Amino acid sequence: MDWIRVLATAAVFLYHCSMFFNPFPWHVKNNELGSDGILVFSLFVGAWIMPIFFAVSGISTSYALRKRRANEYIKERLVRLGVPLLFGVMILTPPQVYIERLVNGQFRGSLFEFLPHFFDGVYLDFGGEGNFAFFGLHLWYLLVLLIFSLLTLPLFQKMNLKNEIGKIHFIVMPFILFLSGVVHTQALGGWDLGFYLIVFIYGFYVFSSPSFKEIVRSTFIIHFLVAVVTSSIYILWFMDDLPVNGSMEEIAFFAIRTINCWSWVICIFYLADKYFSSSNRSLKYGSEASMPFYVLHQPIIVILGFLIKDLPWSVPVKLLFLITAAFAVIMLIYHIVIRRLKVLRFLFGMK
């Protein structure tokens, strides 16, 4: 599970680097959008990257509640999620909103001149007029996970953590996720909040079951074939022409995306169990660094992207530079500063 968390953090880093070049709205865009290859990567990773975070979080919650009382669990969630969220909202979010306003011609002046305007209106989406992003932009995951953790606690306390599951869960789950599309709350990271809540609960109850691994091993080939086929259909359909809202084609498109997401989540758990089941120094270091890396990665990408967006470099050169430079800056800040200072360890959700 720690390997999944570390590798998923690396994947979301690459995904946000691709956002600088793909055609989707973002805080800052390159002066030349990338090739179809970058779009394919964004679509492929975006289909499962945030659901895998919520699935792993559900498993982590099941382990945490076996060791902690309810009040200890709540305190731990508030510290490990709430503190870095608040730090990110107040310190790391303003520069990103400022850069977006500059790029869109919505503000002129320095960052210090912009700061008094940070609380002018609520930031709701790219290109809007409100500035106060109370959810921390990319840190929405921490806010949603904190809310889920508190809301589901009474339910989780009543669940049997030694449950034995059957393959029926693997058949029913895609239908439940598909039905979640009927209720629209708020879409974040490509999926609705209801979708993430179901994955989180499933992570707690099903993915943490002692019989989960064996079922995954016995069904991997089927899930892998389904994942490859649905990825191909979903990506080609998206690149050809998106279906009209409310049409039967849109329902079919959502069903394919849902099955694709579910299949890749199962495949990732299988591959992690098969090839990443042992610990070493790299894992221990990466596991500790994953939260600070996640909190820091998007602001660094946005700032570097803003600095290079108008340079006359080709897209491949800019992509390589952005990935290399952003990763180096983040790791240097973490290794030299954050991990050595207790106050920063606390602010970034580290033990």
The outline comes out as globular
Average the pLDDT over all residues and give the rounded result.
93
Widest beta sheet: strand line-up: 1-2
Oligomer: single chain
Separation of termini?
A: 18 Å
Radius of gyration: 20 Å
Uncertain runs with pLDDT below 50, 5 residues or more?
Answer: none
Helix-strand category: mainly alpha
Number of separate helices: 14
Query: Largest sheet at a glance?
Result: 2 strands, antiparallel
Number of strands: 2
Order of SSEs: HHHHHHHHEEHHHHHH
**Please, how many domains?**
1
Secondary-structure blueprint:
Elements lengths: L1 H18 L16 H11 L2 H19 L2 H34 L7 H4 L25 H12 L1 H6 L9 H12 L7 E2 L2 E2 H15 L4 H29 L7 H28 L5 H28 L6 H23 L4 H6 L4
Antiparallel strand pairs: 1-2
Helix pairs in contact: 1-2, 1-3, 1-12, 3-9, 4-6, 4-12, 8-9, 8-11, 10-11, 12-13
What can you see in these coordinates?
- This protein has 14 helices and 2 strands.
- It has 351 residues and is mostly helical.
- The chain has one domain (2-210, 291-347).
- It has a two-stranded antiparallel sheet.
- A hairpin with a 2-residue loop joins strand 1 (187-188) and strand 2.
- Helix 1 packs parallel to helix 12, helix 4 (70-103) packs antiparallel against helix 6 and helix 8 packs across helix 11.
- The model has no long low-confidence stretch (mean pLDDT 93).
